[in-house]
Amino acid sequence: MAPEPLPFTGDELTVLRSHGLAFFADRVIYEAQPPISAKSLAYVESVCPGPIPEAVRELWSVTAGGQLDYDLTVTVEGRPAAFSWTELFYDGSPGYRDLHEWIDFQVELVHEEAAARGLAGQLDALPIGGFEYLERVYVVADPDSPRYGSVVAWMSGAPAWTGLPGTNTATALAPDLHSAFARLRIDSNPIRDGELDVKASTGVELLGYLESRCEDDGLPRELAERVQDFYLRAAVA
């Protein structure tokens, strides 16, 4: 299903963009980075076996990284598990690794595995986001694969007390990037449920970001409230 048209004018989107707010597949990205540079895109494609999936190109033409504040559940060995997809990796990220560092890391792993088998390796799964080194989101980047463009959620092994697998696991998240974003939701509306003071609650980071932009950087409050309303459309109840 195609995303609905954004309820913002072109001028409003420009203002929001100047305040680090961008949109993709009906979801809000904050601390949004500029679109990917031609140089960065050329590097990414140079380590992949073919053109990167069109949906990734579309995302990066809007913003080449930023922060997400949603809930997400994946199925691991037949059981639902919470999955943290809080960042779209970007160059210069202060996180565990930035976009190019994650790609270089994956390329190194691929080359090591290929060399052990006497093959030439290329990056067939592109890391685009996740949470530090614990949970990562990949898009299948091999045009010859029947799963080209599909999205995979990778989780590091969990402690035994969690009941989750103790070894690294990868599970299908969605058939394409738009569908993956559609799975991002808000389980509990932080405004309606009075959770704005609960730091770990989903939505608190984004709503706080909007407030700081209004108070400190001149984002029009009426426009910020409309972004808030748009964001809260992802609340499940």
Automatic annotation (TrEMBL):
* Domain of life of the organism encoding this protein: Bacteria
* Protein name, as recorded: Uncharacterized protein
Say which species the protein is native to. Pseudonocardia cypriaca
